[in-house]
Amino acid sequence: MKEFKVGDEIQVIKEITEENIKAFSLLSGDVNPIHLDNKEVNKSIIKRKLHMECIWLLCSQQ
User: Fold this and answer.
1) How many whole angstroms separate alpha carbon 34 and alpha carbon 50?
2) Class of residue 62 by CB neighbours under 10 A (exposed 0-12, middle 13-18, buried 19+)
3) Residue 7 phi/psi, 5° resolution?
4) What pLDDT is attached to residue 53?
5) What is the pLDDT of residues 3-36, one digit of tens each?
6) In the prediction, which pLDDT does 36 show?
7) Domain containing residue 38
8) How many angstroms separate the Cα of 44 from the Cα of each of 16, 50, 60?
9) What's the first-to-final CA gap in the chain, in angstroms?
């Protein structure tokens, strides 16, 4: 494993899966249907699932 020093930059690529999103929703206690249920998403103004919390968690674990 490469050792990093101050000023180094890295890029992390992670595919976020439905399983990641479901697991994070359960872990965080945020089981709002806008994160999980396509039928609810289609009723919303945004028309897409909201997953920012999951993305932050995955990024912080790298």
Assistant:
1) 6
2) exposed
3) 100, -15
4) 57
5) 889 999 888 887 878 888 888 888 888 888 877 8
6) 80
7) 18-60
8) 22, 11, 29
9) 13
Structurally, the chain folds into a number of domains equal to 1
- What is the per-residue pLDDT for 6? 93
Q: Report the candidate in 50, 60, 59 with the shortest Cα–Cα distance to residue 30.
A: 50
The one-letter code for the residue type at 43 is K
* Exposure on the CB side of residue 6, measured as CA atoms within 13 A: 0
Tell me the two tokens of residue 55.
Answer: 């993305």
Q: Is residue 37 situated within a structural domain?
A: yes
Question: Could you read off the pLDDT of 28-58 as tens digits, one per residue?
Answer: 888 888 778 888 778 877 777 766 655 566 6
Q: How many residues does the chain have?
A: 62
Q: Domain for residue 53, yes or no?
A: yes
